[in-house]
Amino acid sequence: MTDKRRTGLSLGTRLLLAMAMVVLLGVGAAVAAVYLRGQALASTAVEEALARSAVAVENSQEQHKQQLKQLSRTFADATLVAYLAEGAATAQESSILDLLELRQNDLGFDFAAVLGPDGRVVARTDRPGSAGQDLAERPLVAATLKSNQPTVGVWPEEDALYNAVVVPMVTGFDLVGYVAFGFRIDQAVARDLSEISGTEVVFLAVRQGKFEALPSSTLETATAQDLSRSLVRLDPPSALARGEGRRVSLNLDGRPWLAQVTPLLEAPGQAVGAPGQVVGATLALASLDRQLGPFRTLLRDLVIAGLAATLLALGLAYALSNRMLRPIRRLVASAEAARGGDFGQRVVAETSDEVGQLARSFNELLADLREKSDMQAYLTDLSRTLPEPGKAALPVEGPQKKSVTLVAVELRRYVRAAAQPPDEVVARLNRDLRRAAAAVAARRGRLVSLLGHRLLAAFEGEDRSVRAVAAASEMMAALGSREDAFDDLAEPLVVLAGGEVITGTASLGEDLTASLLGLPVQKLESLLKEATVGEMVLSKEVQRDLEDLLARTGFTPESHQGVVTTLPFFSLKSTDAVRIAGVVTPAVAPTLAMKRSALLADLGPGKLLGGRFEVLAQLGAGGMGMVFKARDRELDDLVALKVLRREAWQDPVQLERLKEELRLARKITHPNVLRTYDFGELDGIHFISMEYVRGVTLRYMLDQTDRLPFSAALRVGKQLLSGLAAAHQQGVLHRDIKPDNLILDPAGNAKLMDFGIARPIARAGLGLTQEGWLVGTPQYMAPEALQGQEVDARTDLYAVGVLLYEVFTGRLPFTGQTPVEIAFKHLNETPPAPRALAPSIPEVVEGILLRCLAKSPADRFPSAESLLASLDALSA
Predict the structure, then answer these.
(1) For a surface tag, which of 172, 639, 672, 706 has the fewest beta carbons within 10 Å of its beta carbon?
(2) Catalytic, out of 110, 374, 736, 796
(3) Catalytic residue status for 736
């Protein structure tokens, strides 16, 4: 199929042939039009010439008739009549001939004859010696004998025709005879008629009932000879007896002629339309070839000019087609290269016409394919670090030293688990672990390990010990209560220790495991031996971190010296720990809080929420709540189900505001925006259902490689802005744009998620350092948002600028130990020049990033569309 296509004519050849066909068709149409027009004009000219010839013959006959009548009065004067009256009978023929010849010479006629009263010849100038010939039966003579009036007509002879008149000669009342004379119809007459009519003229005589041509003709000799052979096609003379002309077609010398046949009558009938004696005819001939001659010359010139124009057009077409097809050939070559996987081609758009537009569109397509290819290659390479199917997702970390607060929980109810049914034990353990995970995740901690019935959690960052105490108090309450009256109450032991540890990912056979090494781990092991039921044990380092909080709350932990170990430690009663946790996070009614915590903790794989959502797996947890992969039985589709913690819905005003923002977010339908489906409450739990995408977040990608390849980064930026522009068009601000909220599917397509969720639901009023909800994430917040001013679309663009800065350079523009320090830099400092961190990025990208990070919203891009247009203009 490909070979057959390649062996066909090229586009340039087809274009050239098409142009040649157009020119040839144009010339052919012009030639045909000229030919048809010439034929029509020639036919019209012939018809007009023949019509003129008929009129000319009629006028000529009438003119000769009048001339003969006038001459008859002069010819047959009194002298001639007297002479004939006195002695015509006895006079010699010779003397009368002399008199006739004298008159013939004076008047110029061609023949004359004197007839007796009975119509017999007395003398004739054209035939001396014919005296006594009886001409009484001749129609012209007979008409005169009958009417005794001069009669004009055509006098036929064997070799000629004459326009003649027969005049009676009368003296007194006695008829003495007749005089006949006339003019020969010769070649001179034919020429006169030819000049008048514009036709060739031939005179015909009737011989034996047929027409024969007389020498009196304007035709060339060869044509005249051919005419004699063509006269058989003429109607017989008898058909013209009424004096009406006929139109006939002849072929002379192989060429078409039209002829007008006008009869010549010896003596016309007396009545109108009565038959007369046809003795000859005037044949006016017009040649179609002669009339078409000028048109044929024009036609020939037109053909020559058309051929010359065709050759010239082909030459110009060849040059123009080469020029026009040059970018198309480059497009073809680039397309072939792109088909082979080489997307590095670029076609120069030299014009602004359709070809130029095609070249620019093709360049944009190649750029998009390059970005997509680079992103897929990057994701393919990144996929090597992903967990194997069926294994728990474990972030691969390099060795690090961290300051942490560790919480160890010993689940004593499972010490004698071997005596109970295994399925009941495992089911209960899963419920307890979910409750513990929910409490830890709510305080931004993470579960590190489970060894037997001992659970270990770690907390990092600012206020880590405060958050650890709050989480530990919730675990003591949730894990130390009976599920029913028959439940064996065995409260857990809880110990907290702090300090520096070494973390990293270690291999355990074919599996990966998170390692945690250091003195705080050893202290947990030791202090668990000193712990008692109903108390929370704190190491000296944790008690030091809590001094300010303990001073504010008025609780003083008891100091102890270890019995089994020599370590000093402090203890808090469980009731005191719960009260301290209530200061950290304002609590609702304890029974309701416990009920809600239990509900969230009970959610897990295999559970059915509200008879609608079948939970398949837990995807993550955060400050807002927990996220599950679930099957929506109503939609029969997989969804991401986010269940909200009590802090997210305890304020009715803020809850209604969240609902309104989610209603707006549902209107956003764009391939680069994660769809929000529903918001509601089932089984006492508020939830948000969203589109489920299997992929990795941009944060995970950056954690693995610091920064993305340039083309992949450009693709992420374009898709982020494309989705954000769609959101802004619906009047929705995101307010928390960051790498964590951008997920990429296996094909490298980015989707923006968590619209409206980042807005604060409740704040404790202690500023950015207070545990609670922020309007966004400090590292990505615009100055106006940090100052509590009005925000708009340009606020989101500032966050986009921070994200792109991190994507292109591998670093955030502003970093610090605390949110307050980071916020101060956003408000007052200028970000480092991006090219100082990543010299390979173009200057135009640096300009775009710095404009996004302008302190004043007026100095930033006015809209997501304008920023997207700037990125689209970049060549990857």
Answers:
(1) 172
(2) 736
(3) yes
